[in-house]
Amino acid sequence: MENKVFTVAIIGAGSRGADIYGRLLMQLPEKFKIVALCDPRQNRLDSFGAEFGVSECERYTDENTFFEKKRADVLVIATLDSDHVRQCLKAFELGYDVLLEKPITEHREECEQLLAAQKKYGRKAFVCHVLRYAPAFVKAGELLDSGAIGRLVSIDTVENITYWHYAHSYVRGNWRNRKIAAPIILAKCSHDLDLLQHYAKSKCKSLSSVGDLTYFTAENAPANAAKRCADCQLLETCPYSAKRIYVERWHERGCPTDKWPYNIINSAPTTEEKLYEAIKNGPYGRCVYHCDNNVPDHQIVTMTFENGVKATLNMMTFSKEAGRRMNFYGTLGEIILDEEKGIVEMRIFGGENVTYSINELIKETSGYGHGGGDYVLINELYDILMGHTTQGTSLEESVESHLMGICAEESRLNGGKLIYVHK
Ligand SMILES: NC(=O)c1ccc[n+]([C@@H]2O[C@H](COP(=O)([O-])OP(=O)(O)OC[C@H]3O[C@@H](n4cnc5c(N)ncnc54)[C@H](O)[C@@H]3O)[C@@H](O)[C@H]2O)c1
Predict the structure, then answer these.
(1) What confidence tens digit (pLDDT) does each residue in 292-303 have?
(2) Contacts of 295 (CB under 8 A, 6+ apart)
(3) In total, how many domains does the chain have?
(4) 80 lines ligand 1 (CB under 6 A)
(5) Pocket test for ligand 1, best of 16, 165, 262 (most atoms within 8 A of CB)
(6) Within this chain, do residues 120 and 17 fall inside the same structural domain, yes or no?
(7) Ligand 1 in contact with 290 (CB < 6 A)?
(8) Considering the domain boundaries, does residue 381 fall inside one?
(9) Where are the alpha helices (DSSP H) in 53-134?
(10) What is the pTM of this model?
(11) Which of 10, 11, 15 to mutate to test the pocket of ligand 1 (most atoms within 8 A of CB)?
């Protein structure tokens, strides 16, 4: 009877690394023990170090010191996008198995470099494509695999980001500018690209893509808009006002003390005073028309897979409600996954519709992010690491979907030119 407890180190004790994965790992003490943390923010190290029981000498503010030697069996890499490849290469070299946040990289050569290093050092590596583990998306895959809708012909996907989430992350936040973040099609839609190749059961052969930044620019600012919401006459009426997005929504959600995005704009525990302080002085109080953002606010990708399946992906900012909608079209029927309506529905031609409620499907994972996917990923990680299942989102597969995103950005920058994924 195996009874292995994996020791875990986390680099990047931010929202994903500590608040989500760290806390989920702590729920499984018979499988995982967090033994080291690395993050330049001392306050995060102190609070999560204490919460996770990591000794003070195993809390590192400097990644070079952290990487001087191997400190655990598994390394969770949850730093920002541009750190992933550098840290993952160091981790392979030291002999870690890795759980790596997406996006991996925006460069084809780095994808190849990582795969070569993984092979050279013989390590396991999984990418956090959490939706693959989310019960609704698993159900859609099972229905497809049942063959009930016949041969899959095409998949039509919309990712509704919502106006306020886009403003938070892609106008005011960490993913707003190409100088500091990966292309949005990778940063926001790498899960969709991963799901599409997973459901198509094929590599993507070619694609084209269009999209741009149409709205969040100085030319679209109302004449009387100030540079910061706190100083603006439109504070109470603009839908993008930081007061509406952070303070009013926070009240509508019951004033949570430790929830995204409020814990991003100022440290938890969240209070109304801290939110106002962040809006007055911090980056999240800037006018959405006067930020240093340059990433597209909408993008469409059209894909052909090697087995002939076609797909479209529409990344959309201008929606009120969040959620993905995927329509699978087969020769004998359709499957519709609609997160906003909360259903997965199979419609067989000439037959009855069968509808599954997403709330019913997610059951005990309810309340966890990404439709329960965050919870299931960490709960299945043990079996994946032990080699008890081959279901994990491997680095190799994830590289394939990253190549799709890299090619989509290349196409977008070239006016929608058709790009072959494997040249
Ligand atoms: N899988 C998903 O669905 C999903 C969802 C959201 C974000 N992400 C990805 O997860 C990653 C982290 O995002 P987040 O929202 O947690 O951001 P975050 O800003 O909350 O966390 C990042 C943390 O990394 C720390 N950090 C910065 N430089 C570091 C370094 N050199 N060494 C160690 N730590 C360092 C920061 O201080 C911060 O605490 C990003 O790459 C993001 O794209 C993935």
Answers:
(1) 999 999 999 999
(2) 170, 175, 176, 177, 178, 181, 183, 184, 187, 213
(3) 3
(4) yes
(5) 16
(6) yes
(7) no
(8) no
(9) 63-66, 84-94, 108-121
(10) 0.92
(11) 15
